[in-house]
Amino acid sequence: MPKVNLYATFRDLTGASQVEVRGRTVGEALKDLVARYPALGAELFEGEELLERVSVFLEGRDVRYLEGLATPLEEGATLDLFPPVAGGGSLGGEFGALPPWLFEAYLCSWGGEKEAEGVFRLPGARVRFAEAPPLEVGSLRIPRLRVEVEGEAAEAWWGRIALAASRGGG
């Protein structure tokens, strides 16, 4: 069964950080989630369309750059579901096929200063990252990177990181 990792207000609405769902596509999985937690419906969809302000990642890749709600899900797939976030705070998730050296290069190119191994300071935010257990499908092994961003500019940096990861890391 696919899993959905829920963040910020989505955790509050469901009372859970991770939920198993049924569905062969991202859209079916989200519909199953909404069937169990109806309050999520207005937070995720306008009619049948995913709201632009909601971020849905499949194995670290933004589904908008895949096949959207029609993106197929494999058994055991993981979706990360992020609501819009206002103000300061903390965001986190995993990105597939984004190697640490490439992520460090992104952070440096954005003016980040390395504070320690896996910790960078950016204007208005601190970024922490570490390798996560790889996704294994048969003999295929896809590295994963766990990323956390905190601070007053966390939302803006998270968006930039997610975009870079979807382009260069997967």
Helices and strands in order:
Layout: E1 3-6, H1 9-14, E2 18-20, H2 26-36, H3 41-44, E3 45-46, E4 49-50, E5 55-58, E6 61-62, E7 78-82, E8 89-96, H4 100-109, E9 113-116, E10 119-122, E11 125-137, E12 140-151, H5 154-168
Parallel strand pairs: 1-7
Antiparallel strand pairs: 1-2, 3-4, 5-6, 5-7, 8-12, 9-10, 10-11, 11-12
Walk me through this protein's architecture.
The protein is globular and about 45 Å long. A 5-stranded mixed beta sheet has the order 2-1-7-5-6, with helices on both faces. Strands 8-12-11-10-9 form a 5-stranded antiparallel beta sheet, with helices on one face. A two-stranded antiparallel ribbon has the order 3-4. The protein is built from 5 helices and 12 strands. The chain has helices at residues 9-14, 26-36, 41-44, 100-109, 154-168, and strands at residues 3-6, 18-20, 45-46, 49-50, 55-58, 61-62, 78-82, 89-96, 113-116, 119-122, 125-137, 140-151.
Largest sheet features = 5 strands, mixed
What's the order of the H and E elements?
EHEHHEEEEEEHEEEEH
**Rg to the nearest angstrom?**
16 Å
Helix-and-strand structural type: alpha+beta
Query: What is the number of helices?
Result: 5
Strand order of the largest sheet: 2-1-7-5-6
Question: What is the 3D shape?
Answer: globular
Strand content: 35-45%
**Number of DSSP E strands:** 12
Distance between the termini: 23 Å
Low-confidence stretches: none
Fraction of residues in helices? 25-40%
Average pLDDT score: 85
